Amino acid sequence: MRPKKQQLQEAREWAHKAARLNPLCEEQHGRLIALLNRTGNWKGALDAYQEFASRLQKEEEEPSPALARLAADIQAQGARHNSRQPAYALSSPPAAALESIAVLPFESLGQEKATAFTDAIHGDILTRLSGLAELRVTPAHR
Known about the structure:
Shape: elongated
Helix content: 55-70%
CATH topology of the largest domain: Serine Threonine Protein Phosphatase 5, Tetratricopeptide repeat
CATH architecture of the largest domain: Alpha Horseshoe
Number of strands: 2
CATH class of the largest domain: Mainly Alpha
Number of domains: 2
Order of helices and strands: HHHHEHE
């Protein structure tokens, strides 16, 4: 398995490629902007938004209100960040910016031996989610 940092870099590269292949697709650009922001690169996210908005303006269009609101939120986040820290892009998201999820165990409604199956599914979900750098996973055991 590749290191998490490498996985994030590859995800950013693929998001950039998808946005370049669909230069007027707001969905692709929205994904890129959100990914850059989630991984701590709020400045890159704002740059991507500005580039997309400029491209749309040439077509006499504008970003949707939802994407504009996301950009405004990211800009406010960046302003708060700049007031506390030196201006540089983070290589990984700060701990407070991580999304978190609790994974509750499944309860078997069938035979007792089905419990091993539900425990295995629970463990697999925990393992896969734990592999995401931008997500903090909290297991809940019986």
